[in-house]
Amino acid sequence: MIEPRYAKSFASDNHAGAHPAVMDAVAAANTGDAPAYGDDEWTAALQDRLRDEFGAHAAGFVVLNGTGANMLSLSMMMTRRYEAIICPESAHIATHETGASERVLGVKLVTVPTPDGRLTPDDVTARLGGRGNISEVQPKVVSISEVTELGTCYTPDQIAALAEVAHDNGMLLHMDGARLANAAAFLGCSLRALTTDAGVDVLSFGGSKNGGLVGEAVVVLRPDLADAAPYLRRQTLQLGSKMRYISAQLTALLTDDLWRKNATQANTMAKRLADGVSDLPGLDIRYPVESNAIFATLPPDTIPTLQSQYLFHTWHAPTNTVRWMTAFNTTPTEIDTFTTTIRQTLKP
Amino acid sequence: MIEPRYAKSFASDNHAGAHPAVMDAVAAANTGDAPAYGDDEWTAALQDRLRDEFGAHAAGFVVLNGTGANMLSLSMMMTRRYEAIICPESAHIATHETGASERVLGVKLVTVPTPDGRLTPDDVTARLGGRGNISEVQPKVVSISEVTELGTCYTPDQIAALAEVAHDNGMLLHMDGARLANAAAFLGCSLRALTTDAGVDVLSFGGSKNGGLVGEAVVVLRPDLADAAPYLRRQTLQLGSKMRYISAQLTALLTDDLWRKNATQANTMAKRLADGVSDLPGLDIRYPVESNAIFATLPPDTIPTLQSQYLFHTWHAPTNTVRWMTAFNTTPTEIDTFTTTIRQTLKP
Amino acid sequence: MIEPRYAKSFASDNHAGAHPAVMDAVAAANTGDAPAYGDDEWTAALQDRLRDEFGAHAAGFVVLNGTGANMLSLSMMMTRRYEAIICPESAHIATHETGASERVLGVKLVTVPTPDGRLTPDDVTARLGGRGNISEVQPKVVSISEVTELGTCYTPDQIAALAEVAHDNGMLLHMDGARLANAAAFLGCSLRALTTDAGVDVLSFGGSKNGGLVGEAVVVLRPDLADAAPYLRRQTLQLGSKMRYISAQLTALLTDDLWRKNATQANTMAKRLADGVSDLPGLDIRYPVESNAIFATLPPDTIPTLQSQYLFHTWHAPTNTVRWMTAFNTTPTEIDTFTTTIRQTLKP
Amino acid sequence: MIEPRYAKSFASDNHAGAHPAVMDAVAAANTGDAPAYGDDEWTAALQDRLRDEFGAHAAGFVVLNGTGANMLSLSMMMTRRYEAIICPESAHIATHETGASERVLGVKLVTVPTPDGRLTPDDVTARLGGRGNISEVQPKVVSISEVTELGTCYTPDQIAALAEVAHDNGMLLHMDGARLANAAAFLGCSLRALTTDAGVDVLSFGGSKNGGLVGEAVVVLRPDLADAAPYLRRQTLQLGSKMRYISAQLTALLTDDLWRKNATQANTMAKRLADGVSDLPGLDIRYPVESNAIFATLPPDTIPTLQSQYLFHTWHAPTNTVRWMTAFNTTPTEIDTFTTTIRQTLKP
């Protein structure tokens, strides 16, 4: 019997286990033979649920992880070898995918410094000066993350403004939605309000950070882009053979708003943690806490003390900034115990 | 409640469900928080099991699917942009990965026609004529599949001979082991006899076709190749975040020789099917049945009749060749019923 | 003063020097300042000449070498990452470009064995069985070489038949025209008859093998493909800065049918050589001599004897096959002397 | 007879013609047959000259243009798919090669903002925080341009300091030397002092901007890197067939220090122009004039007036910054006439 090493991790929502309803759905899918590669009943059912959430034109493609979701999404949005992607410097595709965009897709990321992970329409237009210059890459996609990698959220209006500037300039809007559920929970809106209604063209909907075991969905909102997706999914190494087991998980999350309940719990716990420590001298919360992540600057000597008791990552060593993340399974008691530990450790 | 559409599929071992022990292992892994990306106890336990099977130098890397396993394996074996891979024309990497080798890896496959999916040392040496010619790609990897895509097996001696010719010519030997378990079961040997002891350098060990839900392992048998693997796994979109759920499956298959029991059952059922139909006039079994696949040429008008009752694929339409596959969960009764159906359908 | 090492090379038409008219054109272009990257008067003049030869819709793009011409041509014809190219096994893009198609373009070449380097419509249709199968690459381009790498020529009708099968199946026809001039000279037809009128979509027109110093032209016959070409030319490393010096060479070759005179001389000399040796016992001419190349099988011991006196390449060592090439500057006397040497060397 | 459209261009040193000695060398190389692809006497002679300048271990590779030189250089320096390049934001490889680094090489450029195009050792070390993090690319090459794209020069000591920090961290130092001659002329030092002696590993030596027609040289200063270069040159579309004509040009430039004379003339003329206009109200010279380029901010309405008389590029429209370049053939009279025109146009 394997026992986990940590009572509680605040390192990542990937450290949480799977939600019981997700586990039940996987077990229920294990019945008899079923066609592979998505031609099964569970994947068909997921398509229905995705259309319910994202609109009748939504086409869903189950993939295996978040980086895969991004690469598949972007690969279908770009058809010319000299097209480029405009994204924030902090974008996951720019920082933590080991150069997959450049190596697997072959595209240049035109990265934009931002104060809090959010791109603005002006950021985009300022990168269009090379339009028509044959020596420069030609931006074709604007890529944003909702929630951003710094824990902040775009409002529906902010997304719509980006979609408008993208479309007005012959570009498409991509959303890395690894934590899209957390954004919708924070903003109190539907998934559709942040995506389809705001003009997003292709997005990913994260399952694993929301209580799944494995698997994400790419949702294509422009039917003309979807034809290529099945080929690209195979080629980008994202086609699961026994897809039913992944589809069943995503369907479970999309049933009875489980995704929202899970995300709300995670967000609420992050807020509770932030509220419990924000007054501490020497502790500085760097970005608005709008999801399930807190970025905090701490006195440097307190970091190893805390890390000896709780698992969490140093985000940026030069500034002594750490990241604390909550998940669907984080409890108020866990937060309160952690809060007490932090307060005692930082006590002058 | 979703019901499967087919009573029985003979289309692929991917159509079978997951083995109950695999399901149990996944459920047991769902306890508390655990580090992501492989720094968990379940993945550590899998490493132990892989070393038991493949030797003390074996380094295992959990990946998400078979194409991903191949791309990760090959990417770590090749360091120069002009290196190439010698493989049979029938290799999965050459035929059914939508050009991932060329697009994701950027390498040329030097493909060799074979009578039954098996490469020979002479096939390899005959492709080395361009050594040192700067206008030609330089073979660096010999890639074989065990079981082959045509259902045949290499013996340990045949693999050792290929390893020798590869190594003698400065090349490495890669094995796509999506159905390695079936080969070891057919040949009555250990996994190690077909890999480590035969001189294989990097291989994949298939989980999903052997009773898993999702996930495979890449096993690196040359320590100097393993350093790059973690970076390459992330970049080739094969790094699962909640890895414990995949590692637990593979460990379950590697416990108490479950992999061999599952493979033996599949192989035995294929043999039973072949034995039951091979005397039929108009039916021609194309390759030796050495695993869980049968390739049969049928009278053309009988194919749609049979496909209306059972799910299976036409493998090569111009020659009226179909593929029938069995799996760990195929029963003698299912085989016998299918045999009867075939016999009746082909009755003159 | 550097002196050449060989009195005469029969190894390649690349070994010939530059035609005096080409040299004069380069010298004449060296007058004052001129815009770089093709915005100069000499490149404008070349465009006019190319339109004269290939039709009003032809758009020309000067590039730096033959492999670059092929990569630029193919890159503009393919917009999806899973598209593939059907070509003969003997195609230069498949054999002698060090894997540039796979590495630089990222595409799979679906290669077809042929008796003499020529593809047929049936060869093409036989490779379309995977249409719509998401696990297989999807052919988008049929690529032929005129003259082929084995010295044979397609007739206008043969090219038109390939264009028809390509277009009927949603594909495009590419022509590697490194020796297009030799084909038109052999067939006694215009460049246009072999390209525009036959339905070719994109082709290269070789300059260096026809008496130039450096540089080729890509000619785009479908206006919708041309927009991307300037970006792709820069990206594929084929944009010459002082383009006037290359454009001037190509214009010289296209003036007063110099290209045809040069090609005719080369072809005639190859025919003279073939006629002079074809009756020799032990010498077997492998392919019809339809251009400026002769492929001959010789008694193995005679090859080094001849190579000690004349520079030429062994084409295929296992069959003792050599290649002899002539060029625009080959003279009857040179052929007759070489013929005599061969006859004496092979004398029983 | 084609006449150039502009009396004088200040847009680029690529707009100048070829130096008469270069033309003579090309003409002299046009004698008889010679082996292709670099196995000729002219290329052997160039190798000797390169060794004279760069040291006995220098291996030269003739290529076709500057972007090709960069891609070949970088491709031989990087063997792992997850390696990255640290370079200034203003680097040609980052800004004006239409994404070739990302598309052709597949690498991420880690770009650094700089005040004047020059990277510092601290810039490099600050980008090494992700060493060993498998989610981040791993820097392998530091790439600098000498002269920089902003017309400034690194001193030998500055280059040596970058080489030291690169080598101390397991990286290599690459130099884009499209205008290396101008730097050596400005600094009054040898080519070797800026390269071999300073610890550069691979560099390009620009021919076309120094009075050549076409062609550059890649110079490899670490013998262990050179083995791969011939294959990579072919694959990166940079192998010229009739190489003698390019080698002869480069040899001409490297004979009797013609490269230094040409560069000195260009630099002197740029200095003369800068001196003649730097006192003008409303005109601001943005970077130290250390080569043959001047970047000047002008009153916006004066730019079109000047551009109607002289060809030059607007470098950065939002700040009304133009670039003026001189070349080996620029005369004092041309500078003085241009200076007068500028002064009159900017007169209040």
Automatic annotation (TrEMBL), chains A, B, C, D:
This is Threonine aldolase family protein. InterPro entries: ArAA_b-elim_lyase/Thr_aldolase, PyrdxlP-dep_Trfase, PyrdxlP-dep_Trfase_major, PyrdxlP-dep_Trfase_small. Its cofactor is pyridoxal 5'-phosphate. PANTHER family: L-THREONINE ALDOLASE-RELATED, LOW SPECIFICITY L-THREONINE ALDOLASE. Keywords: Pyridoxal phosphate. SUPFAM superfamilies: PLP-dependent transferases (SSF53383). Belongs to the threonine aldolase family. The keyword Zinc does not apply. Transmembrane segments: none annotated.
